[in-house]
Design goal:
heterodimer; A: about 150 residues; mainly alpha; about 85% helix; about 0% strand; B: about 160 residues; about 80% helix; elongated
Chain lengths: ~150, ~160
């Protein structure tokens, strides 16, 4: 297959996942809020069933999206194996902390409101960095070939 | 992972049945998605515009932007997973490279432009909504066509 076209398709796919993450971040800021008090108030009023309704599709989708995004990272030569493993471990750890912390918040453990905020923005930040690495690498490789 | 590793799907009758039923389920999912959207937004661009942008003459309030975002977010969840499933199978078919590339490009571009058109609708008005309506139907039909094509290939043992 044409390499440039494949790169283009990969970039569209990454753009889609980025759009999904950005919309998720905007929704989080609009619906939940970004201060610990707002987070405690939002999740304190939610039932376990309500939280599971949100959590289930997120866990399913994000794990698939992470697998798809991180497999691009596996092909990048400029990063060492150690760095790639670190990115992967970090992303999945932040992702699990982000998803599980609302349950603890609903049980009144205030500390997890801070965990939720740090994990959410940490996850978005690290994922953003991974995509920048992927973008940079695919664009550089594409330019060097032509 | 065995699916990716095994050379020919026709050698494995169990995997063929699994993929076949998954494709049938995907076609059903696409049909249900169109039906759900028809209930939520309507069945024509005019009805979509009325629901999303509102209509002062009929005292219909426009959709709250957060609700529109939530709807796009939920749609993208399902559509991206559907695309990954179809693309992973389609990539290993005996169809020509041109057909494969065409299928991937059209589905990805429509998938990317659909939410952008919806998001721009507060600015672009009914034009944005009409484009989103067209792309939504186009993506769904493309996935249904791709699934039917894959089912035919599976039955003819060419996958």
């Amino acid at each position: 297959m044409n390499q440039r076209l494949l790169t283009f398709l990969a970039l569209i796919f990454v753009a889609l996942v980025i759009m999904q993450a950005v919309i998720g971040a905007v929704l989080f800021a609009q619906l939940v809020g970004i201060s610990p008090d707002e987070v405690i108030k939002y999740y304190g009023n939610k039932s376990l069933h309500g939280m599971l309704e949100v959590m289930l599709p997120h866990v399913l989708f994000i794990s698939i999206a992470l697998m798809a995004s991180l497999h691009f990272l596996a092909f990048i030569d400029t990063l060492s194996k150690k760095e790639k493993t670190l990115f992967t471990q970090l992303l999945f750890t932040l992702f699990f902390m982000d998803q599980v912390s609302p349950i603890f918040i609903s049980y009144g453990i205030v500390f997890f409101a801070y965990v939720k905020i740090v994990a959410f923005f940490g996850f978005e930040g690290v994922l953003g960095w991974v995509w920048i690495v992927i973008f940079r690498e695919s664009l550089l490789n594409d330019t060097s070939r032509h | 992972m065995k699916f990716i590793a095994s050379k020919k799907l026709s050698d494995n009758s169990v995997l063929r049945v699994v993929i076949l039923w998954m494709l049938i389920a995907l076609i059903l999912a696409m049909g249900l998605s169109i039906t759900a959207k028809a209930i939520d937004y309507g069945i024509s661009p005019v009805q979509w515009s009325r629901t999303i942008l509102g209509n002062p003459n009929e005292f219909i309030e426009p959709l709250v932007f957060n609700d529109l975002l939530l709807s796009i977010h939920t749609d993208l969840f399902g559509f991206i997973i559907t695309f990954i499933l179809i693309a992973s199978i389609y990539a290993r078919t005996s169809r020509s490279t041109r057909i494969k590339i065409g299928f991937f490009t059209l589905s990805l571009v429509s998938l990317l432009l659909y939410p952008l058109a919806l998001l721009s609708s507060p600015l672009s008005g009914s034009i944005g909504v009409t484009i989103a309506f067209g792309l939504f139907l186009f993506f769904h039909n493309l996935i249904i066509l791709g699934s039917v094509d894959l089912i035919i290939l599976l039955i003819r043992k060419k996958l």
